[in-house]
């Protein structure tokens, strides 16, 4: 354990905390937007897998990670359209249809990976970008200011999403249809259009989260996300449906993942004990859910479909 | 006379609606959903360069081609049925149990530990005992999210998924550590020793691989039906699922029902874990290809079977055979046309989406027929 508490290792661990937090953060921010509009999307995990695979495949074949990321974003948006139709037009139960999206993403990416790639090949991870001046600050620079552009984007989206929800007309409409859709409808807000937009934003960000994940690992495998999309949903509760709250949760889970990974690298946990260590994020999620269960602020119309006739 | 005739005419029309048209609407719409999913599957195969007709021929041949294929289908259906019946109980009680995977694993662990501890018990005692141990293990793993939901307000979908991850890692830990087969050679395979002969589920006559587990699964489904639809407890569970506030007002214990539903649901999956171990050809707990390799993802596929069976335990028996057949046939699809059997998982996801999307349609259809009949 002593080899863990050295300056070099600790700084590397904190730097990977930021890197590991990015996929959680992107997915949780997107889910926050959707839930504020009153739609629970449990398909995040599946959309992340689809985003991760498409980013991986496109980057592998085009050599351009940027193209891969854009395709992942588009795949997420397409899944958003599908989910919007399923929940808003057909009023499918939001809990269980999300599990359908998860199973589809799990099976479909596995199918494509086996058929199109077969043997796992690494993709080139995008070069890390060091912020001028800030990146050269000792310790702090390495932890916060030397990352791939997608990591910076994830954190830049926190104030952006917060501003969008709280300070724009669109955000006001999102909150209105998530709290009192009937009242919003009376005032002429197109409830289902706003919800559809929120779902598409949320799923696009889940697609991006998948891209961020696969660009971290550099390789795709079956069930790459291993529950991270579901954890991201828990982070929305943890963050009390606020963007900055979601960031706090993402950093916490980024830290746990970074520590577990570092322990494996250093051999502090190996074999059977690494299996025990791998339980930590899931146990932490349950603990977090218990702690925030009394949290107030859930959108009043969450999971309730809107139908003017009824 | 005329008035009486009108009434009886109306009654017979109501009878037609209730007894024929409604179940028909309940049957037609899911079948359309499956047809739609199969159509998407055909497009997938085309895109992957395989002939869909040959693909589905291989799939059907692999599922029901001969007696060995049929036996494999029944064996694949067995865990789906057990998980599926549990899903019927949970969903009817208004709790969404996604924790079948973890509950299967805990059932398998508990039953394995019993078989390791008491290997010399006679078969007539040990076989029921390992099944009960499986139910207890799975029931315990189901009661945790139940209690978390009832008394701490934790969303059961998220907690059951997290408990799946914990169970999978726990299994991996046990098979590398406490329960690993003691061998002289240095190769460490993640498996227990071969379990006592007395714990093996007896084979059914007929010369196939079919064993007692299939009958156990069907029995559990029938018991599940009586529990849900023919008992006071079932009425309470369904009432709580239908309207928790009204049930509480009527004096029912809502929290207790939530825990009970998830524990019962987990117990069914736990029995599934036990039959997977003691009905396996290797007769040991082995996690080849990870935890999902052991569970065959039945914890998820069982949800699909239960939804497709209209959350009715008896219909779930039949839908389990349908999906068991798809999974068995998927192996042939992979072997003959090089279409990875992961396609079946993707199709299952689509079927879930299509089935839950069609419920509103189904209700409208039934309502329209009702209006026409009463008009």
List the helices and strands and how they pair.
The complex is a heterodimer of chains A (310) and B (375).
Chain A: H1 7-36, H2 44-62, H3 65-89, H4 94-117, E1 129-130, H5 140-144, E2 146-147, H6 149-167, H7 169-179, H8 181-186, H9 191-217, H10 228-238, H11 243-266, H12 272-278, H13 280-291
Antiparallel strand pairs in A: 1-2
Helix pairs in contact in A: 1-6, 1-7, 1-9, 1-10, 1-11, 2-3, 2-4, 2-9, 2-10, 3-9, 6-7, 6-11, 7-9, 10-11, 10-13
Chain B: H1 2-47, H2 52-64, H3 67-92, H4 100-117, H5 123-152, H6 156-176, H7 212-229, H8 232-242, H9 244-249, H10 254-278, H11 290-295, H12 298-308, H13 313-337, H14 342-374
Helix pairs in contact in B: 1-2, 1-14, 2-3, 2-13, 3-7, 3-10, 3-12, 3-13, 4-5, 4-6, 4-10, 4-12, 5-6, 5-10, 7-8, 7-13, 12-13, 12-14, 13-14
Can you walk me through this structure?
The complex is a heterodimer of chains A (310) and B (375). Chain A has 310 residues and is mainly alpha-helical. Chain A contains 13 helices and two strands, in the order ααααβαβαααααααα. Chain A has a two-stranded antiparallel sheet with strand order 1-2. In chain A, helix 1 (7-36) crosses helix 7 and helix 2 packs across helix 10 (228-238). The longest helix of chain A has 30 residues, at 7-36. The mean pLDDT of chain A is 91. With 375 residues, chain B is mainly α. Chain B has a domain at 79-182 and 189-322. Helix content of chain B is 77%, strand content 0%. Chain B starts with a helix and ends with a helix. The chains are: A mainly alpha (310), B mainly alpha (375). At the A-B interface, helix 4, helix 10, helix 12 and helix 13 of A face helix 6, helix 12 and helix 14 of B.
